[in-house]
Amino acid sequence: MSRTAETVVEDRKGTESGSERSPDRRPTAGDQAGFERLVADLSAIFISSPSERIDAEIEVALRGFGELFGLDRCAVDQFSPDKTELRVTHLWAAEGIDPDPWAREASLSSELPWYTRRMLSGKPLIFTSRDEIPTEAVAERRNVEGMDIGSSAIFPLVVGGDVVGNFAVDTIGRQRRWTDEFLERMQVIGRIIGSALARQRLEAEIDERSRFEGLVTEISAAFAAARAEDLDRVIDDSLRRLGELLRLGVTHAWSRAGGEAGIRGTVIDETFPWLTGEFRRGRPLCVSRSADWPAEAETEKAHCESLWRRRRRSCRCVSHVILGALQAARSSGTKHPE
Known about the structure:
Blueprint: H1 5-15, H2 29-48, H3 54-68, E1 73-79, E2 86-93, H4 108-111, H5 113-120, E3 125-127, H6 138-146, E4 149-159, E5 162-172, H7 180-225, H8 231-245, E6 250-257, E7 260-263, E8 266-267, H9 268-271, H10 273-280, E9 285-287, H11 298-308, E10 312-322, E11 325-335
Antiparallel strand pairs: 1-2, 1-5, 3-4, 4-5, 6-7, 6-11, 7-8, 9-10, 10-11
């Protein structure tokens, strides 16, 4: 029977007395032996686990590390592929400690900008006392005080030179001095988790690419077999399937009819003059935030900001210029929780 991180943690709890959560705890010989077993077991588990099991194994690995070293809370945050979002994806809290359930929905990149920049730069954040938090980290200090965090150690997860997220541990309502031995061990676990996340992402990308290629084949066949009167239906169905596969919030196709480019009764030429000009030049458009819009795209920027207030967060537009004339365009947008 294959072993999982959860069975490893349960086995170890049966043979060890456990670690009390003390204010200033030094590693012991028992810690070293338990840590070596944890590393060996987790390494084997993450190598053999299927991609869909990795998230569950990480959560249990956090529990094993936290219990072994008497921590109050352990978490893994992950960056989105474009590095614009940082969110809590895995979390463990000791018995009697608030697991902070809201954190999985909060955008750390918008709530904690200094912290996010530091993680992206590959620098750890380690403090025993809140007084050690830099003065420029205003939102971060407020967050730490609000959550009653006494001490924290946070290391970026770097895989192949790419920062994919971070590994964080906290004490709640008490301070703890982090020893060099503990910080070294934390980095070892972080590397194991980072490698597992990188493999999970790679396998997800390969699977999505395979499904996308299959969808393109099916859509191409549908267009080849469609009658003229069925084209609108085929286009709508293709956009729907594409949006579902790529997890987009909305997809559009704009076409030129009667000399005007429009969508569902909206005349694009008049409503979005700057965007229409970019379309005519055959230039693609990618916007992730309001600041990405140039000054001359005032109308387009205002329109997108109104959409973003309704949780659409980014968009991409591509034009189709045939024989030197703009004939059509397509756009897509993503949505993220507040």
